[in-house]
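Continued from yesterday's entry.
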Amino acid sequence: CIIYLAKFDTRNVLLVWGYGWRGTYAGSLFLEDPSNWEAYRNAHLLLLRWKDTNRDGFVQLEEVTVEQCA
């Protein structure tokens, strides 16, 4: 999943773009947690990975990791 946050003129732009619905859902779950906003407050671009570690087919926040940030 790619999460992009930027300013365009006077507007804030937030893009959450996942590979399929699970990727988008993983990004949304990640953004739901306020501690992630604090941890990456200076980043404007995040690349997330979801790995279904318990093989249940459902996205859980514990399975989402940050691969890159900028």
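--- second protein ---
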Amino acid sequence: YLQKQHAVSKIIEEARSSKGSLRILTLGPLTNLALAKRMEPSLLCQLASLHIMGGNTTGEGNHTACAEFNFNVDPEAAHIVLSRDIDNCAPGSLPVNFTTTNADRSASVVLEQCPIYITPWETCLRALSVTYGQRTELGNVNTPQAQLINKGEAENLKRKFFNHYVSCDQLSAAWTLDLLLGDSVLPEHERASYVPLCKESVDCRVTVELQGQHTRGQMVLDRRSCIPHSVPATLLTAVNQPYYLRYLRLAFGRKF
């Protein structure tokens, strides 16, 4: 719900007060998070984890030829979030010097960047094959959740841009929940057979291109660690679809 406080100051306030327990999931452009990081350089060191829906891994775009929508709407913001402060950081981590709040206020400590989990566009497009028939069945229930999602997706479902139902924000949210909850979301009698939502992932350093004539906004996979300011991240590449469908059921207000 809307609050009078600006999102940027709220992010900083929550990060400071959470003492390392705050987890952030972003489902749109990274403008507010980037501004918060500019104002609070140690922001990503204060989080428990950061989960991002955005970017791409093979140069396939859905907003331009080579860029995913959320990153391309504000490439500078995505670049700020997925870049290490070169002046203050050592290789391989994101250390930040700050004054502690204990008795020795002159003490300087080093923190490392929180884990970053990214759900890229190509995974949303190709790792799942949920049919439009399955999507219709999911939304055919009289719940507030289903009514909201059906209304929001009505135009896309009508025009059918793809040959199957593509769900980006839902997948990123489901992966976040699965990382945090594991088998606890299942009934007790099913927990022994739990298989994670993530079937495959790639760990590598990433950043965002700003200068390319055709590639501005594209996420760059720095597999060889050649870019000084790139940051480590885990990219979702393959999905346990039957389990994901259960998360979709939950999103529409059905039983898991």
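Residues 143 and 253 are 6 Å apart (CA to CA). The domain at 7-126+168-180+199-237 is CATH 3.90.245.10 (Inosine-uridine Nucleoside N-ribohydrolase; Chain A). Will compare against the first tomorrow.
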